[in-house]
Design brief:
The protein has 552 residues and is α+β, with helices and mostly antiparallel strands. The chain contains 16 helices and 19 strands.
Length: 552
């Protein structure tokens, strides 16, 4: 069993265990000797659990992709990761790194079986440095744990994913996403100073610098692994930027007639000098779903926009006035402090509406802020065309970028309805690209979009993948290719045609909405009352700020 140790000197290339010409069960034996028998499993039920993420894929995909791994390995340290990668490489076994599986695009599912590496056991906070304003953590630490560790030292985390309570550091870095606080503090890449990465050849490298900025010092190697979805290497540790506590986080909330009206108000706010900590929104369909779950809602609100402001009292007061003017110009009505608190505290719980499903598939696309109203119309048109029970949530990533997060409530046990989910995702992608935006994340199903998004740059990315992973063993069938269990590459024209056909089939089925429901923008207001047991440990605020006077 590997001895998991850490030293101050990380400037080396790690070797680790190897297993040349080992076949079948002998691989399991080698892995068990490396990481411990209790950290390797071939149990059928356990492997089945790793064949799903937050959104279940239609059962029929098992005929195309081998999403059920052959072996699950749970490393406890970097040395375990290095050794596992070496064993996988020497036996030409694909390896798929996995965090908490909260993205929902299939990126943490194997496409060709092999080994799934569950990094959630690597969950140690190595150091919080108040002088350097950083936290160095293992990849399996959740963003909520980083936030709490920072707060214990009088600091704060800048941005974090909306699923911070379960999303891991390595997972969000691999996805390269935006989240709560990105409007002020930037996307995932801007939260990271330094990475420790195990390459497909088993070498251990450092990318970035812990104490200073990583620019004008060669290629931006750190950013190569942010958003790579585990296709170039496995992130094992990261140093995260922290920030001084800049006064209170004060949430405000505004009700609008519908999401399109809110879009105009958000446009105005992004063109003002105010820089909120976060701007989020939920539409009337989402509000209706909450009411369907039995949650009381205030009246006369077809969309709710939540604007969280951060700073000292004088700064917050000034920003409050600017915000109210901007959102009021589009018909926004300010809600009470209690309603604003509830909206802010529920920001990490939006997908609880999955209970209405039993399945829920989230989508995520970027659209330019000035095309936001048009995007709203076209997304509702897609929802209506496909007869879907869907809602729209989202946030504003920066002054020029809105992250639209539509979701589809579906019974994914039914074949055609489950397959039609993917048609909806294709429609979202087409809408975003036609408006000058792009999809967020690629995962398993949407690798064929890489060329549509990046043009000839996609060929450069594929060349980088071939250079670092010539045997195509690191999370194959993702990002730069659509690869099946039969090692057949799927051309983007074929994939897009197939997804379009699914949409045609979906339109022949009865709609998912009940009689009297609308699939488009609706009324209803919102004051979500969390179900018993949903409160996070340690206080009512999932950001934790309410425990120390922040959060309004």
């Amino acid at each position: 069993m590997a001895q998991c140790t850490y030293t101050a000197d990380l400037n080396h290339q790690a070797g680790g265990a190897t297993a040349r010409n080992v076949k079948g069960p002998d691989i399991v034996t080698k892995l068990a000797a490396l990481v411990g028998e209790d950290r390797v499993t071939t149990d059928d039920l356990e492997r089945e659990l790793y064949a799903a993420e937050i959104a279940n894929l239609p059962p029929e995909v098992v005929y195309v992709f081998q999403v059920k791994p052959d072996i699950v390995v749970r490393p406890s340290c970097t040395e375990d990761v290095v050794g596992t990668v070496n064993i996988a490489r020497d036996n030409r076994v694909p390896i798929t790194p996995r965090g908490a599986g909260t993205l929902g695009l299939g990126g943490s599912l194997p496409s060709k079986g092999g080994i799934v590496m569950d990094l959630s056991s690597m969950n140690r906070i190595m150091e919080v440095d108040p002088d350097g304003m950083t936290a160095t953590v293992e990849a399996g630490v959740t963003w909520e744990e980083v936030r709490r560790a920072a707060r214990s030292k009088g600091l704060r985390l800048g941005a974090y994913p909306s699923s911070a309570l379960s999303a891991t550091v390595g997972g969000w870095i691999g996805g390269g996403g935006v989240g709560i606080g990105s409007y002020k503090y930037g996307p995932a890449a801007d939260q990271v100073r330094w990475l420790e990465v195990v390459l497909p050849n088993g070498h251990l490298i450092e990318a970035g610098f812990r104490g200073v900025k990583d620019n004008a010092s060669g290629y931006a190697l750190k950013n190569l692994f942010v958003g790579a979805e585990g296709t170039l290497g496995i992130v094992t540790r990261a140093t995260i930027r922290l920030h001084p506590r800049a006064g209170d986080v004060v949430p405000t909330a505004y009700a609008f007639k519908d999401l399109k009206k809110a879009a105009y108000g958000i446009q105005t706010l992004t063109r003002s000098p105010v820089t909120p900590y976060n701007i989020g929104f939920v539409d009337g369909n989402h509000l209706r779903h909450l009411e369907e779950m039995g949650s009381p809602v205030p009246s006369a609100a077809g969309t709710v926009v939540t604007v969280a402001l951060e700073g000292h009292s004088e700064e917050v007061a000034l920003c409050n006035r600017e915000t109210e003017t901007a959102l009021g110009s589009a018909g926004g009505r300010r809600l009470s402090e209690e309603e604003a608190d509830e909206a802010w505290l529920s920001r990490s719980y939006e997908f609880r509406v999955k209970r209405l499903g039993p399945g829920l598939v989230p989508g995520s696309v970027f659209v330019p802020t000035d095309r936001f109203p048009e995007a709203v119309d076209r997304v509702y048109e897609a929802i209506s065309d496909l007869g879907m029970k869907a809602g729209i949530t989202g946030l504003v990533a920066d002054r020029n970028t809105v992250d639209l997060l539509p979701y589809y409530i579906v019974d994914d046990r039914k074949m055609l309805k489950g397959l039609a989910v993917m048609s909806f995702m294709k429609r979202l992608t087409d809408i975003s690209l036609s408006l000058g935006g792009r999809p967020v994340g690629v995962g398993m199903w949407f690798a064929q979009n890489l060329g549509r998004v990046h043009g000839e740059g996609a060929d450069v990315m594929r060349a980088i993948k071939r250079s670092l992973d010539p045997d195509n063993l690191m999370n194959p069938g993702k990002l730069v290719e659509v690869g099946t269990r039969y090692d057949l590459a799927v051309p983007h024209t074929v994939m897009n045609a197939g997804l379009g056909l699914m949409g045609v089939l979906k339109r022949t089925l009865p709609p998912d909405t009940e009689p009297g429901e609308t699939a488009g923008p609706g009324g209803m207001g919102w004051r979500e009352l969390r179900a018993e047991g949903d409160e996070p440990e340690g206080g009512k605020d999932p950001d934790g700020e309410g425990e120390e006077g922040e959060g309004g």
